[in-house]
Recover the amino acids of this structure.
């Protein structure tokens, strides 16, 4: 029994004596009531199971106004008055107790993306809890482990694309790679106004394009990408890039995170190579590249060796859209130049060595390979003449749960029959993916390439409950590209 399960069972055994002892029990009347899931710990048991020094945070979901560029004000929704929401930084082993207050006109939830929390804390409306109504509150409590770079975001409808997103970092006790300092880089797409579901492209939409990339209206992805007005890096358009300062000789760790609604980014830095050290927060054997793709829901930590003084562009270009790359400036403290040369973009955006999934190897050795106890072969499709996005032809919620048993090794083999990218994300578990024959990499979100791209993931069913498995493109999720993984 691993530590987490030990704690649950201990808590369950002690539940009778603990119930009612906590003064700050949630006010269910105004709260997003937890949904009891057979086999999963109860909300109270999960809450009591989170031990360790408490870190209390209060998150208010509310309307915000943020300046994303000179004279460009985004009237949208965010946490605690801003966008992106406040970064939560925890030490491994702390206990987070987050009280979420909903001051929006719609119900909401928070999902702790990537952290294998107990089921009642997962924030999926209709699966683990009723959404928090306007004026309501909900307390999420869980142990901060394992260390890594994570996100938290709303899991209701398209709210994520309105700015209800933020980074969460759990700091490791002993990093496997040396660095001097870390910064968080949040990549996002910028959609003024309320997001709306995308409708089916007409003839000449999907079919009429020539290139593989989006060409906007009437192009390959016409009607398939929301009408974004630009791309943001830490909340700023390229017209007002943030500066990341470095000292010569420093090793800078960048936690690159993509909570965007519908954008896969190609990330690179001018004049520097990037050593990838973590994938979705999990330590990997360092691999040095010129660029990497960061899809929706993915996080990569990279270390940059500051050995090339000057002012350089940090840039992230969309793979399927048309907006200009998101940008920041890497600025050496002693450099004469304050900005990179006008219009200069990193070579890595268009060439050089691009990180491949098979390059990634977890530092942690895999459990000895056994045959999966259960395999699901899943086709990912949609987009052509239909506005539904499906897994094996089924659009959630009219979709059969993927039934698993506790303790099983489960394999999901995915084939992408569509022309778009699908970053597939599993809640509550890490899976192994990439080159599985040599152990592969532990992740929670994996990009399945378009046009018959195939990716397999394997996970051990060790966290009972009802869990979402879905494409992290918010519009594909909204159009049905999701399944429930249900313990039976
Ligand atoms: Cu980032 Cu279903 O979540
Ligand atoms: Cu998708």
């Amino acid at each position: 029994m691993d530590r987490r399960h030990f704690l649950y069972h201990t808590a369950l055994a002690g539940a009778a004596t603990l119930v009612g002892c906590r003064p700050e029990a949630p006010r269910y009347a105004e709260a997003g009531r937890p949904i009891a899931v057979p086999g999963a710990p109860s909300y109270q048991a999960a809450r009591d199971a989170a031990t360790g020094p408490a870190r209390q945070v209060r998150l208010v979901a509310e309307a915000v106004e943020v300046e994303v560029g000179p004279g460009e004000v985004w009237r949208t929704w965010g946490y605690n008055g801003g966008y992106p929401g406040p970064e939560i930084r925890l030490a491994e082993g702390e206990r987070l107790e987050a009280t979420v207050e909903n001051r929006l006109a719609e119900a909401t939830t928070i999902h702790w993306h990537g952290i294998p929390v107990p089921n009642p804390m997962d924030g999926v409306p209709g699966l683990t809890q009723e959404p928090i109504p306007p004026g309501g509150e909900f307390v999420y409590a869980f142990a901060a482990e394992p260390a890594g770079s994570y996100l938290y975001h709303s899991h209701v409808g398209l709210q994520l694309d309105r700015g209800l997103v933020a980074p969460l970092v759990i700091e490791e006790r002993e990093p496997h790679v040396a660095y001097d300092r870390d910064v968080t880089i949040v990549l996002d797409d910028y959609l003024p106004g309320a997001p709306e579901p995308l409708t089916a492209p007409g003839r000449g939409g999907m079919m009429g394009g020539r290139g593989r990339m989006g060409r906007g209206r009437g192009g390959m992805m016409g009607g398939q990408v929301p009408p974004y007005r630009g791309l943001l890096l830490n909340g700023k358009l390229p017209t007002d890039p943030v500066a990341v300062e470095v000292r010569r000789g420093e090793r800078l760790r960048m936690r690159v995170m993509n909570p965007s609604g519908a954008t896969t980014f190609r990330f690179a830095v001018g004049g520097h190579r990037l050593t990838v050290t973590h994938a979705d927060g999990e330590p990997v054997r360092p691999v040095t590249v010129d660029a990497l793709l960061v899809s929706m829901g993915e996080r990569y930590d990279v270390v940059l060796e500051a050995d090339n003084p000057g002012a350089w562009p940090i840039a992230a270009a969309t793979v399927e859209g048309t907006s200009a790359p998101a940008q920041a400036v890497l600025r050496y403290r002693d450099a004469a130049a304050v900005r990179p040369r006008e219009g200069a973009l990193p070579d890595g955006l268009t060439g050089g060595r691009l990180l491949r999934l098979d390059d990634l190897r977890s530092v942690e050795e895999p459990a000895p390979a056994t045959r999966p106890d259960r395999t699901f072969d899943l086709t990912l499709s949609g987009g052509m003449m239909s506005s539904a996005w499906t897994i094996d032809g089924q659009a959630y919620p009219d979709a059969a749960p993927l039934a698993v048993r506790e303790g099983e090794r489960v394999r999901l083999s995915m084939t992408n029959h569509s022309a778009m990218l699908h970053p597939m994300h599993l809640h509550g578990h890490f899976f192994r993916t990439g080159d599985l024959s040599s152990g592969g990499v532990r992740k929670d979100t994996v990009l399945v390439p378009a046009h018959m791209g195939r990716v397999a993931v394997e996970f051990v069913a060790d966290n009972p409950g009802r869990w979402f498995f879905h494409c992290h493109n918010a519009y594909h999720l909204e159009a049905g590209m999701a399944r429930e993984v249900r313990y039976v």
Q: What stands out?
A: The longest helix spans residues 3-18. Residues 111, 113, 153, 155, 297, 425, 427, 468, 470, 472 surround CU-O-CU linkage (ligand 1) (CB under 6 Å). The helical segments are 3-18, 43-49, 474-478. DSSP finds three helices and 30 strands in the chain.
